[in-house]
Amino acid sequence: MSINITQHFRLEPEAGLIWFKLKIEENEDNEEIDEEEQTTLGYSIGLGAFWMFQREKVSFYLGGRIMHDKAEFERIYIDDTMTDTFIAFKFGPSLGFEYFLVKNFSIGGELSLQYAISSYKYKIHYESYEDEEDAKSDKVLFDTGLFVRVYL
After folding, report:
1. Exposed, middle or buried, 119 (CB in 10 Å: 0-12/13-18/19+)?
2. What pLDDT is recorded for position 30?
3. Do residues 20 and 40 touch, judged by C-beta distance below 8 A?
4. How many CB atoms lie within 10 A of CB 124?
5. Per-residue pLDDT for 131 more than 70?
6. For the chain, what is the HEC assignment?
7. How far is the C-alpha of 125 from the C-alpha of 102, rounded, in Å?
8. Shortest CA distance to 53 belongs to which of 19, 97, 89?
9. In this predicted structure, what is the pLDDT of residue 53?
10. Residues forming a β-bridge with 61
11. Minimum mean pLDDT range among 14-28, 49-63, 107-121
12. 111: phi then psi, degrees, rounded to nearest 5
């Protein structure tokens, strides 16, 4: 969703959810069936701020985005339970364009260069055995995207 503050300045709040459940059954050589179940739950929130200018039906923008992502993955395989947690904070410059097919409908693309600081936590539980591992990283990411927008 874009919010045009002025003719040349736009804010773009962003929010998203991810949830899915996956069940895998393996049958090797007609033996007992092994089942693995995976559940993922996560979210992403962020804000972009952009300077804009328009030429006929094309709007160009340049600015930056700040994002926070979190996802939790749980895998169950026979008696093992593995839990992974991923958290990231990303920020950086972005530029893009959108072409208005009609007044309230556009298609476009965006390029971003993002600096990401992330942490990853892994836990495994098996009967009386438990293990935990943490990792942190920082990366520079190049992100591209295509989109369709409807303005109300």
Report:
1. middle
2. 59
3. yes
4. 15
5. yes
6. CCEEEECCEEEEEEEEEEEEEEEEEEECCCCCEEEEEEEEEEEEEEEEEEEEEEECCEEEEEEEEEEEEEEEEEEEECCEEEEEEEEEEEEEEEEEEEEEEECCEEEEEEEEEEEEEEEEEEEEEECCEEEEEEEEEEEEEEEEEEEEEECC
7. 55
8. 97
9. 93
10. 52, 96
11. 14-28
12. -120, 140
pLDDT band at residue 33 using 50, 70 and 90 as cut-offs:
low
Residue whose entry in the numeric block shows the structure tokens 């990401």? 116
| Other beta carbons less than 10 A from residue 35's beta carbon | 12
Tokens of 105: 């409908």
pLDDT digits 0-9 by tens, 57-103: 999 999 999 999 999 998 887 777 888 999 999 999 999 999 999 98
pTM score? 0.74
Contact (Cβ atoms closer than 8 angstroms) between residue 120 and residue 94: no
